[in-house]
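Course assignment 3, question 2. Fill in each field.
Student: A.L.
Task: Predict the tertiary structure for the chain below.
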Amino acid sequence: MEIILAESIHKLGEEGEVVKVKNGYARNYLIPQGLAFPVKTTNANQVAHKRKLVLDRQRKRVKTQQDIARHLSSASVTIAVKVGEEDKLFGSVTSQDIQAALKNQGFDVDRRKIILDDPIKALGMYTVPVRFTAEIQANVKVWVVKED
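Answer field:
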């Protein structure tokens, strides 16, 4: 069955693409969830119109993500943590802590978009990438300082 994707789906396709999937997958999951709509049941004009709407929505989303990434690249957050002897951290700084610090500055970023290979376990300045899409990424400066 041929469908038009209403949203980007990992390993299937991008928003607005016409893809071919098994009938059951389309009828039982994608179409009822609003993730796709069938090509055959609508005429060509409706399909073209829906596809144009989806692509316009996607362009707007990309533009807003680029704007947020531009503002986020200039942001710098400071996270104060408790330290012990020799300035060793009690615990670590995680993506959740960075998300909370960004939220205090007015940036609402999903913590899963903050890319930390390992939690931060030492004082200092770190450059942490925030990835919105494969193409759109911002680098945030994170200062980990001693709590007074």
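Instructor remarks: The chain has three helices and six strands. Residues 86 and 122 are 10 Å apart (CA to CA).
Grade: pending
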